[in-house]
């Protein structure tokens, strides 16, 4: 079977469907090359000296793994040279990284979670890279990009995707024209379009949540999970299965493949933080993908993609996946 390459797909989207600009096409290709390099580093594991912690903390007070920092550097370096970008923002960096004057500059803004699922690195479980592309707002023309220029709702994303480093390395991408899955052919070094037009089943009997946080959940999430656990004889009338990989990339990949609902809800913890996951690097790109595949994504209050961000590293509750289940959860929030 002959598969299209990522480049062929993107050129088609640019020329025939006008779904992507030449600049964004080149940017996605650069990100995909960086993901290939991260994939090689990940697969070397202990032999490449990439496992373990660095003993430093990121801006959010989380201990950084060697791979968090290495992946961040790979993405920065690749995109400084070839990304057609104005600036970048990363979960691992305090503030934005502007493209220096001597590099080719573009109009786009790139955001990334360089290594998602950090707690799984050392135990050889799937991890990934998540990215999102925005455009510099018109008012930024002629001046330096500011952090505030990144604070755009997810509906403004022009592309988003993730690479998953699992049994296979895949790149799952949307440019707003459906969701495409590319598998890395290591011998050829190419991304091949193996999963065309990924669609998410509307119904499901599988949920993903970290049950150890149950005592902190808000009432609507508690109600939904209680009902799932009651199985066939409960109000939902079916037996549910549960999965929790603790890599958002891997959990979302499973959901895009066979349906399900993923939750890292905001909760009632005294810390007052609104959930664990980051709006700009995790929730927005994944919500864009899930909606493009026919699913839904909410924070409990409403649609994630409509949220006006108020900070680069803002955290948010995330509920996403199969349409009917997410709509049910939305109803439970409204009723509460
Ligand atoms: O360990 P917990 O609390 O279950 O959290 C798991 C979640 O945290 C994350 O690992 C956060 O991402 P990072 O590894 O990029 O910080 C998600 O991928 C995952 O869904
Ligand atoms: Mg993450
Ligand atoms: Mg991360």
Automatic annotation (TrEMBL):
It catalyses: beta-D-fructose 1,6-bisphosphate + H2O = beta-D-fructose 6-phosphate + phosphate. It comes from the Bacteria. Pathway: Carbohydrate biosynthesis. Mg(2+) 2 binds at residues 113, 116, 282. Substrate binds at residues 116-119, 210, 276. One of its GO terms (cellular component) is cytosol. Its EC number is 3.1.3.11. Keywords: Carbohydrate metabolism, Cytoplasm, Hydrolase, Magnesium, Metal-binding. GO terms for biological process: fructose 1,6-bisphosphate metabolic process; fructose 6-phosphate metabolic process; fructose metabolic process; gluconeogenesis; sucrose biosynthetic process. One of its GO terms (molecular function) is magnesium ion binding. Residues 4-196 form the Fructose-1-6-bisphosphatase class I N-terminal domain. It is an enzyme of class 3 (hydrolase). It is found in: Cytoplasm. Mg(2+) 1 binds at residues 91, 113, 115. Binds 2 magnesium ions per subunit. HAMAP family: FBPase_class1. Belongs to the FBPase class 1 family. Homotetramer. This is Fructose-1,6-bisphosphatase class 1.
């Amino acid at each position: 079977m002959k598969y299209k390459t990522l480049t062929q797909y993107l050129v088609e989207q640019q020329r025939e469907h006008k779904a992507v600009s030449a600049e964004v096409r080149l940017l996605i290709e650069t990100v995909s090359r960086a993901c290939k390099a991260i994939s090689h580093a990940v697969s070397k594991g202990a032999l490449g000296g990439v496992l373990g912690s660095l003993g430093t903390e990121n801006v959010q007070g989380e201990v950084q793994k060697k791979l968090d920092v290495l992946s961040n550097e790979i993405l920065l370096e690749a995109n400084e040279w070839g990304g057609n970008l104005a600036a970048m923002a990363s979960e691992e960096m305090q503030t934005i990284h502007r493209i220096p004057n001597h590099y080719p500059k573009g109009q786009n803004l790139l955001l990334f979670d360089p290594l998602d699922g950090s707690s799984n690195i050392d135990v050889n479980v799937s991890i990934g890279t998540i990215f999102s592309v925005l455009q510099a707002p018109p008012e930024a023309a002629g001046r330096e990009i500011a952090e505030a220029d990144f604070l755009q709702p997810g509906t403004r994303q022009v592309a988003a995707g993730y690479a998953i480093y699992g049994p296979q390395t895949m790149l799952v991408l949307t440019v707003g024209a459906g969701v495409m899955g590319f598998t890395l052919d290591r011998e050829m070094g190419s991304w091949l379009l193996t999963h065309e037009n990924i669609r998410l089943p509307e119904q499901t009997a599988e949920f993903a949540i970290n049950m150890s946080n149950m005592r902190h959940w808000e009432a609507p999430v508690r109600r939904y999970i209680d009902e799932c656990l009651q199985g066939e004889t409960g109000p939902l009338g079916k037996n549910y299965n549960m999965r929790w990989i603790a890599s958002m990339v891997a959990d979302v990949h499973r959901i895009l493949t066979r349906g399900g609902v993923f939750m890292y809800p905001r909760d009632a913890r005294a810390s007052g933080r609104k959930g664990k996951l980051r709006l700009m690097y995790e929730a927005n790109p994944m919500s864009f993908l899930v909606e493009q595949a026919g699913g839904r994504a909410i924070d409990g209050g409403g649609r994630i993609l409509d949220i006006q961000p108020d900070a680069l590293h803002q955290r948010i509750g995330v509920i996403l996946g199969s349409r009917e289940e997410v709509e049910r959860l939305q109803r439970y929030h409204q009723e509460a």
